[in-house]
Amino acid sequence: MNSIETRRSIRKYKPDEVSREVIEQLISAARLAPSAKNRQPWKFIVYTGAQKDSLLDVMEKSLQKEQTTHSLLPQSQSGLPDAFNTLKIMRTAPVIIIVMNTGGISPFEQIDSDSRITEICDTLSIGAAVQNILLRAEELSLGTLWIANTCYAYNDLTDFIGEKGQLACVIAIGYPDEAPAQRPRKPLSEILEYR
Ligand SMILES: Cc1cc2nc3c(=O)[nH]c(=O)nc-3n(C[C@H](O)[C@H](O)[C@H](O)COP(=O)(O)O)c2cc1C
User: Fold this and answer.
1) Looking at the chain, which terminus has fewer C-beta neighbours within 10 angstroms, N or C?
2) How far is the CA of 195 from the centre of ligand 1 (A)?
């Protein structure tokens, strides 16, 4: 409960490296998450250093392309400035973890209802694994940012990553260089209903 309450999205990181031992503690926490049919539909790809820089260069070029063409997500143009801001934050984080849904397909492909249900279940499972990572990171005094703004650069990023499956989300990780206040939450009275 303590780490649930103290965790924040961190958008400023110290340049200090995160050791592989620490990263393995985070992924060990992810492994223990529940998953639909125990499919464990996740794979975590860790980018640091020059590889991370190349990944983010791809994202930057792709966001710029989307800014001029609006070809990928034409109805979500208003979110593009936030995606550029997220990219800036990702540059300051020493570690970027790509979270793949190993059974998923590109969100730009059509799927039938059966596959959609499977995708929803696997996405829920991945969410549980990601939250385990965030909470374990909080216990280890690390900061994290859960990122979905990669969607604007989806095709270029997945081409670069070269991994089968769906790019579900990204997590930026590093030692925090800010201590933000808790962001507002809806009151219980709004989100809880007894019947
Ligand atoms: C699925 C998901 C995607 C998110 N994507 C982004 C993102 O791309 N960029 C960003 O700055 N924050 C992103 N966030 C962080 C949210 O903005 C943040 O969790 C929310 O504002 C609540 O703040 P808190 O995490 O400090 O409690 C994302 C969070 C989730 C759960």
Assistant:
1) C
2) 31
Altogether, the residues listed in the chain come to a count of 195
Q: What six digits make up the tokens of 22?
A: 């620490």
Instruction: Please tell me the distance between residue 24's alpha carbon and the centre of ligand 1 in angstroms.
Output: 23
pLDDT tens by residue, 137-191? 999 999 999 999 999 999 999 999 999 999 999 999 999 999 999 999 999 999 9
Q: What distance, in Å, lies between the first and last C-alpha atoms of the chain?
A: 27
Q: Which pTM does this prediction carry?
A: 0.97
From ligand 1's centre to the CA of 25, what distance in Å? Answer: 22
Instruction: Assess whether the C-beta atom of 86 lies below 6 angstroms from ligand 1.
Output: yes
H/E stretch holding 126 reads: helix 113-139
What is the pLDDT confidence band of residue 114, given thresholds at 50, 70 and 90? very high
Do residues 136 and 29 lie in contact, with contact meaning Cβ atoms separated by under 8 Å?
yes
Contacts of residue 78, defined as CB under 8 A and 6 or more positions apart, other chains included, come to: none
pLDDT per residue as tens digits for the range 15-45: 999 999 999 999 999 999 999 999 999 999 9
Cβ of 8 less than 6 Å from ligand 1: yes
Q: Which domains does the chain have, with CATH numbers?
A: 2-178 (3.40.109.10)
